[in-house]
């Protein structure tokens, strides 16, 4: 889709509910999940995945107005029936793509005064790329297949 049609479709996407037992939306990201900690990714839970979804993806990033977004983690091809992710793990069968710095897996954030977003996407089909797939390819595929999304935002690191 192009132009206004794509914008109109994005506005009609169904919302997912995203929560975490370790952080609350608008609160701090516990330092255990930052470069000062060793816990890896925070636990996440989501609900209201549409019946049409065939897979789920997660993107963790920060949105810096000066330097642009930096992606800290990309996980895709999560089974659409899965509704949570434990601390420091990925679900069986899920695939991790490359991050902004080219690494595969969760790259803990270090900028203590920035917002960090954990966005869960319901997709109409699998991303179907390999482990370590280039970030640009992965993000484009997720965007093209998204039918619903939700986000949990941490406003800074503790």
From TrEMBL:
InterPro entries: PEBP, PEBP-like_sf, YbhB_YbcL/LppC-like
Xref: Gene3D superfamilies: PEBP-like
Pfam families: PBP
Family per similarity comment: Belongs to the UPF0098 family.
Protein name: YbhB/YbcL family Raf kinase inhibitor-like protein
Source organism of this protein record: Planobispora takensis
